[in-house]
Write a structure and sequence with these properties.
2 domains; five-stranded mixed beta sheet; 331 residues; alpha/beta; four-stranded mixed beta sheet; Nucleotidyltransferase, domain 5
């Protein structure tokens, strides 16, 4: 690794999601010279003005003590980011940057967060679910990602909705709410006695945005880990749905890697294990890495545009081994 220099070019990586904004500033030698985490900055979730303020605050914190004119390239990962492009130029100018970060989709960022190889597939399951086939890191084909009303099969939302349906089925059959259904009822209604749990549960679900059901996904995963048959069945169904989505974009003979990303596909989750098993059965030669730090991946993509030497090593330092890494792209 080269000795850090105040004149060495810097790269900038931004991962902007609905719950958090993460920024990394690094030298091409691999040394991270600035990093910050702030509130969510997705304009769809927060509105354009609030999102811009969050991005600006986090960017300024990461650049504190750093000459922004040293930044030679940057990449901004943002779901649906092209919609917000017009509001970003002012942020870059106010921060002192002399370059405009390139916008990248959350699919591109997730893929780069899992591998330094330029071609392969990525399967994301968080609140929603989408699969992409990537060439030169950019997605060339997408499947699902259609939102809660039209798709997102096998997502956190899908698991949460399925868990509520399971609970309502128990209530309709006048069966005890134990195990996963009991946990769902407590999460939505509290632990007090409810005279009419059926109406109360339906009312609680409809009182919130549909995607809020994704918060119930961890209950399903924990119940599956504990061996509950109904929860394990839901996880198996979700894995089948996700594999079908992946198979829509991934060639049958491919040996390229498949990157797993998103909260419900995090390393160690029973859904990730089920998906891995299905991938190995269908594409036995494929590596299946989990996505690492998304902001670091954005910085690495920026370094790649500059033709930085030792890109494989930089990928390990920026994405895999960076302290505080392993964030979910777009989270």
């Amino acid at each position: 690794m080269s000795t850090p220099s105040d004149s060495e070019p810097l790269v900038l990586g931004l991962d902007v999601g609905g719950t958090a904004t993460r920024v990394v500033v690094a030298e091409l030698s691999g040394r991270v010279v600035g990093a910050a985490r702030g509130g969510g900055g997705n304009p769809v979730s927060h509105g354009a003005e609030a999102a811009a303020r969050s991005i600006a605050r986090t960017l300024h914190a990461a650049l504190d003590g750093v000459d922004p004119r040293r930044v030679a390239a940057g990449v901004l990962g943002l779901a649906g980011g092209l919609v917000a492009a017009a509001g970003l130029a002012e942020i870059w100018a106010e921060s002192g940057l002399t370059v405009e970060p390139r916008l990248a989709s959350d699919v591109e960022l997730a893929f780069a967060a899992g591998t330094s190889r330029p071609a392969g597939s990525v399967l994301i399951s968080g609140t929603g679910a989408v699969a992409g086939e990537c060439r030169d890191f950019a997605p060339v084909r997408l499947a699902d990602g259609h939102g809660w009303l039209l798709g997102d099969r096998g997502s956190g939302y899908w698991l949460g909705r399925s868990a509520v349906r399971l609970t309502l089925g128990r209530i309709d059959r006048r069966e005890a709410l134990t195990g996963l259904p009991g946990a769902v009822a407590e999460a939505l209604l509290g632990d007090g006695a409810i005279a009419d749990p059926r109406s109360a549960l339906i009312g609680a679900v409809h009182a919130e945005a549909p995607v809020r059901l994704a918060r119930l996904a961890p209950l399903v995963l924990r119940a599956a880990e504990a061996g509950e048959p109904e929860a394990r069945r839901l996880v198996a169904e979700a894995a089948d749905q996700l594999l079908a989505t992946l198979g829509t974009v991934r060639p049958a003979s491919s040996t390229d890697p498949v990157v797993l990303a998103g909260g419900v596909l995090s390393e160690g989750s029973p859904l990730a294990a089920a998906v891995r098993e299905r991938i190995s059965g269908r594409w036995p030669e494929a590596e299946v890495p989990h996505a690492g730090d998304a902001a670091g991946a954005a910085a690495w993509l920026a370094a790649r545009t500059l033709g930085a030497p030792g890109l494989a090593g930089l990928h390990r330092e920026f994405v895999v081994e960076r302290p505080g890494g392993c964030s979910t792209p777009g989270a």
